[in-house]
Amino acid sequence: MNRNGIAIGGNIVFDYVKIIDSYPKQGNLSTILSIQRSVGGALPNTLIDLAKMDGDIPLEGIGVAGCDEPGDFVIDLLKKHGINTDMIIRQDKLGTSFTDVMTVQSTGDRTFFHFRGANSLLDISHFDFNRIKADILHVGYALLLDKLDAYDPEYGTVLAHTFFLAQCSGMKTSLDVVSENSDRFSKIVPPSLKYTDYCTINEVEASLITGIPARDKDEKLILDNMKPICTRLKQMGIGHWAVVHAPEGAFALDDSNDFYIQPSLELPAGYIKGTVGAGDAFCAGVLYCIYKGWDIKKALQIGTAAAASCLSEPGSTDGMRDIDSMEKLFMTMPRRKL
């Protein structure tokens, strides 16, 4: 098969983005200032970001949604952006996954209350590599996809098995995971890394996977640990790029194990309207560069610009612009000092 494009499998989420005046202590009250409906999850966020960056890329979604209004909303929006939704299964056993995203107006800090719903049904059987036309398969989020996170006696997890089959079919594989407070990282993520070509995750996730601290007791980023974290990720099996992003900057090892640092952009006061979707936007920027055959230095620049663009609006994909705008944003904004 002559493959071309990007396929994204994983979480399909309907977001209720609620802007609040403050995050209350347990038992206290906070005022909701506004409510916005939006798509969420790795599949809609990253695909729509990619479609906005470049409408000429063939894009496919692989997932499970409910037979309900939120499912209609997400799929209609994907179709509006020219994304192939033929491999998104609709079922009536569980409703479409949703998240209440509580965003503090003054800071953009967000807290998630999540219902797994139909995403828990996504399994290896939904990945038909005779139907998938793309040459890149990105899956997110590991640790939030019950069937794919399940144990596999030969490959470690069902997702690892899925990635093995994708590579056997001639596809490049890309992985993202979810941030959660648990000890599951060291058990569920490493098996998939053996069959992962590109891994793009945040510093919290990278630290939990590798066991190397990314922040000190004062929550300051430990810059000296970023290369060891990327190195350990590569040692765990990643074939090409290990990319770790944080609010302060992005860090990566390429195929030759050369280390790269890209500081984040220095954003003006009042620029950040919300942080939901910023990680997926960064992933979209990296995936775009992989698709175009650009190097890792360029990928970190575009990922950084895409994340910054996302921060300009409260919705997960509302702030995304085309690739020319991403490059212009990166060139015109000052860099943070690390």
Automatic annotation (TrEMBL):
Keywords recorded for this protein, A-Z: Kinase, Transferase
Superkingdom of this protein's organism: Bacteria
Name under which the protein is recorded: PfkB domain protein
Protein's organism: Mahella australiensis (strain DSM 15567 / CIP 107919 / 50-1 BON)
UniProt domain Carbohydrate kinase PfkB: residue ranges: 20-320
The keyword Iron is annotated on this UniProt entry: no
Pfam families assigned: PfkB
Gene Ontology MF term list: kinase activity
Gene Ontology cellular component terms for the protein in this record: cytosol
